[in-house]
Amino acid sequence: MIQEIPISQLDPRQIKQLEAAEAAVQTDLNYSLEIFSSILKQSQGCLELRKKLRDLQIKKVHGSTKGLNNLLGKVTAVPFMFGGKGDKDPEGTLVKAELLIEKNPANVMAHEMLADAASHLGMNQTVVFAYETIKKIHPRNIKNLKELGNAYLEVGNTEKAIETGNFILKINPTDGDAVELMKRASVAVAMNKGKWEESEDFRTQLKDESEAQALEQQAKAVTDSKGLEELIRQAYQNVEKEPENLNHYRQLSDYYHRYGDLENSIAWIQEARKQPAGQGDVSLEEKERHLTLEYFDHSIDSWEKAHLADPTNEETKKSWEDSIFQKNLYEKNQLKSLVQRYPNDYSYRYELGINLFENKEYDECLSHLQLAQRNAKVRLDAILYLGRAYSKKNFFDLAIEQFNLLKNEIQIMDERKKDAIYELGCCLESMGDNDKAIEEFKLVYSADISYKDVADKINFFYSNKS
To answer: In whole angstroms, what is the distance from residue 76 CA to residue 258 CA?
Structure first.
């Protein structure tokens, strides 16, 4: 067992070294890292020092680890094979984990190793810290969230345990383990004579007892976390037996996706694409692309929430903006590659055209949207965006042609037709033809008074008329 201590309880000589290293952070970060790491090896129980070291490690790689560069591209871990490894030499495992984290602070496997070894050494706060770090890397990794919730309970932090359980239920409303976690948290609160109403009663969180019972029953299904873990084990064994069978890789990816582990879901599709039969498989390429975009969306969502929670924090704002930029860049590069390799697949032309339009690259998007009209499934949407691109370039006469085409071709007043007529009116308005513009706005107003600002336009017209 190792006792967890603050920096103030270290040897006075070590404290002086740390003070000197901390003072040198701005001028010699590598020196500071070396001192922090060296003292941590001597005093593994100093969680305060471990946290400071981690902050410096992240600071060192800040900017170079954004996006997926260091997180994806390889299978991150053999599934569920790490349990128990820390019990043979937990102190040695702590050191190994830190060495791996030093090389790459986003190495989830290393943080899991740290948590496992710390657990065997009774360093429960360190276990929490390890799982919290993984949560920062992958906020929606359900497996890690469950480990984190249990770690919170172990240290008596029932509030955080309940919060974590509730977050899991938002991702997967039928997760039986999350229900069980919140139950155990409620029992812990009661036993500690805490004010349960302040930590939001478990039954209130789940609305009523019947809903809780329904969730408990659904948790017994094979799709719960334990069932998925067993399916993952089986699929992994199948891959080992038949590594040429791409269906086993697809299954692993699907199971990890359902488990909430997007990193491994993507990684197994990448492994499938490395196989001889998978190298030319377009469906695998599409799967990887869509999973990666989902990964980016989760990252964007997490950073947006963090920024909204603390709008003054420039770091979270920058990370949010960077996530959006990285997603757009990834999507654009992928689509350009697909268009280059499959020039006659006009659905890719359409997607690239939309991407370029949304990134305000109006000149570049025009040719793709023009060609995309050859695909019947996206033809009408391609015409709409072509008109919008012309409008953004102030080519109002060309834009009007596209919007009129849609207006006449679409027989029912659906959202697309309303968009076309409204934007037609806006083009006419921009050209100074207000009488014709108002006639278009009236058509939209008659069908949907709540559409955008059309009611304001109509009210303004009639108030001035009178």
So the answer is: 17
* Mean pLDDT for the stretch of residues 47-53: 94
- Asked whether residue 346 is domain-assigned, the answer is no
Q: Tell me if 374 is assigned to some domain.
A: no
Q: Give the pLDDT mean for 223-245.
A: 83
Give the total number of structural domains in the chain.
1
Nearest C-alpha neighbor of 374 from the set 359, 386, 363: 386
Structure tokens at 234: 């089986």
- Among residues 184, 187, 36, 45, the alpha carbon closest in space to that of 127 is found at 45
In percent, the amount of the chain with pLDDT more than 90 equals 52
- List alpha helices for 65-208, DSSP H: 90-103, 108-120, 124-137, 142-154, 158-171, 176-191, 202-205
Measuring CA to CA, which residue among 31, 32, 35, 45 is closest to residue 2? 45
Closest CA relative to residue 246, chosen from 214, 269, 212: 269
The pair phi, psi for residue 281, each rounded to 5°, is -85, 110
Residue 337 lies in a domain: no
CATH code: domain of residue 51: 1.25.40
| Coil, helix or strand at residue 46 | strand
What backbone phi and psi angles, to 5 degrees, belong to 183?
-60, -50
Helix then strand then coil, % of the chain, to nearest 5: 75, 0, 25
Q: Could you tell me the maximum CA-CA distance found in the chain, to the nearest angstrom?
A: 88
Is residue 288 within 8 Å of 269, Cβ to Cβ?
yes
3-class secondary structure, 88: coil
Q: What is the CA radius of gyration of the chain?
A: 28
- Give Cβ neighbours of residue 112 (< 8 Å, ≥ 6 apart): 77, 82, 130, 134
Structural domain including 104 reads 7-138
pLDDT tens-digit readout, 152-171? 999 989 889 888 988 888 88
Instruction: Compute the C-alpha angle 359/346/370, nearest 5°.
Output: 65
Residue 287 lies in a domain: no
Name the pTM for this structure.
0.58
